[in-house]
User: Fold this.
Amino acid sequence: MILPMRSRPAVLTKTYFVYILASKRNGTLYIGVTNDVLNRAWQHKNDVVEGFTKRYGVHILVYYEAFGDITDAITREKQMKKWNRAWKLRLIEKNNPDWRDLYDTMAP
Assistant:
């Protein structure tokens, strides 16, 4: 059965995020992609998952970008991972010059 347009449920859209974590100002950086940046940042902060961020204490969410399409987010993540360190630092400094933990501004 095909529902008339007014009876069809709304299409849910997802938001995808490319994010950068740091161990400290100008410290070790990590770039990732997720559809739930708040939860993912919490996981990194609390060392829930074994790996790079736990090993190197990379827990501060210093930058993120939002995308409506996962392909665009993954493309951006791969692009940023190829950047040299100076470009990554410049991006963070431009958008978050005090290197504040953005998780604190997002968490309820």
User: Anything to note?
Assistant: The longest helix spans residues 70-82. The chain has one domain: 15-106.
